Amino acid sequence: MCGRYTLTKSQKELQQFFGVDFPMGFSPRYNIGPMQTLPVLSLDDSGNKLMVSLMRWGLIPHWAEGVVGAGHINARSETVAEKPAFKDAFRHRRLLIPANGFFEWRQEGKEKEAYYINFPKNELFAFAGLWDVHQTPQGKRQETFTILTAQANPNLQDLHHRMPVIVEPDAYNAWLSGDADHASIFRAPLSAQLTFHRVGPAVNRVGFDAPECIAFYEKPQLSLGF
DNA sequence: CCAGACGTTGTT
DNA sequence: GTCTGG
DNA sequence: CCAGACGTTGTT
DNA sequence: GTCTGG
Predict the structure, then answer these.
(1) From CA A174, how far away is CA A167, in angstroms rounded?
(2) Residue A33 beta carbon within 7 A of nucleic strand C
(3) Which nucleotides along chain C are within 7 A of a protein C-beta?
(4) Smallest CA–C1' separation from A67: which nucleotide?
(5) Are A115 and A201 in contact (CB under 8 A)?
(6) Mean pLDDT of A119-133
(7) Does the nearest atom of strand E lie within 7 Å of A61's Cβ?
(8) Nearest nt by C1' to A84 Cα
(9) What is the number of alpha carbons within 13 Å of residue A118 lying toward its C-beta?
(10) Which has the closest alpha carbon to A85: A65, A63, A70?
(11) Any idea what the Cα angle at residue A16 is, between residues A14 and A21, rounded to 5°?
């Protein structure tokens, strides 16, 4: 369901929307995949200001040792409070993940069709996420994150029955500080406004990061050559 | 999520 | 088919 | 007690 | 680290 997303905005646009400095800079991204390092938002020590950091997509629990692979790119919001891998992070290490769209693939017979989902005016938004930190086999401290999922909104059901959780701007602080419970995460009327369109196979290519990934796409018609 | 690999031996 | 890497 | 697992998706 | 299965 949510294994690729986009952040096709400039550093300036991100800073204006979230009201926080991105000191590491940022260039638009059209095809973000697992294992990549991306900007995420959390609360600073004071607990009332957003801050940006860079983390790797694919949560690896702090107790994992040795070679641990890609980690968990998604976590079910319905069970996140009980699962050993997420329990602790759900209570103490919540995140917002800046994005402006995401991809879904639909099996159509033998083919897989890619779709891009975003808001009509392409507004920025934030996924609900969790993070954790572990030691790499090289002994380095590595911070990783996961994106929460939920049942898809009716407007997206034709595409998929699951979707990433989008946090309303009003709820940013409540979510991050741990005040928000399940109900308030799910109450996301914004998600009802998401729309989607077919995109071409460019997005399939891991590492191909260009506007072509989100371009409208018409399936090429078969031609008999006349 | 998709793409790409999918193994063994001996040696340190 | 199933796992790993991106 | 120790050992072993700890996740999601979609598909059949 | 913490839970489940044996």
Answers:
(1) 10
(2) yes
(3) 4-6
(4) C4
(5) no
(6) 97
(7) yes
(8) D6
(9) 23
(10) A63
(11) 70
Residue A2 corresponds to which amino acid?
Answer: C
Element (H, E) at A176: helix A172-177
> In what side-by-side order are the strands of the sheet with A111-118?
A29-32, A5-7, A101-108, A111-118, A195-199
Q: What distance lies between CA A52 and its chain's CA centroid?
A: 15
Rounded to two decimals, the pTM is 0.94
Cα(A36)–Cα(A20) distance, integer angstroms: 22
Q: A88 — phi, psi (to 5°)?
A: -65, -45
| pLDDT recorded at residue A206 | 95
Q: Is the CB of A28 under 7 A from strand B?
A: no
pLDDT tens-digit map of A24-81: 999 999 999 999 999 999 999 888 899 999 999 999 999 998 778 899 999 999 999 9
Residue that has been written with the tokens 């572990």 in this structure:
A134
The DSSP 8-state label assigned to residue A222 in this structure reads P
φ and ψ at A108, to 5 degrees? -125, 90
d(CA A118, CA A9) in angstroms, rounded, equals: 13
DSSP A107-159: EETTEEEEEEEE-TT---EEEEEEEEEEE-TTS-EEEEEEEEEEEPPGGGTTT
Q: How far is the CA of A138 from the C1' of B5 (A)?
A: 25
CA A132 to mean position of chain CA atoms: 16
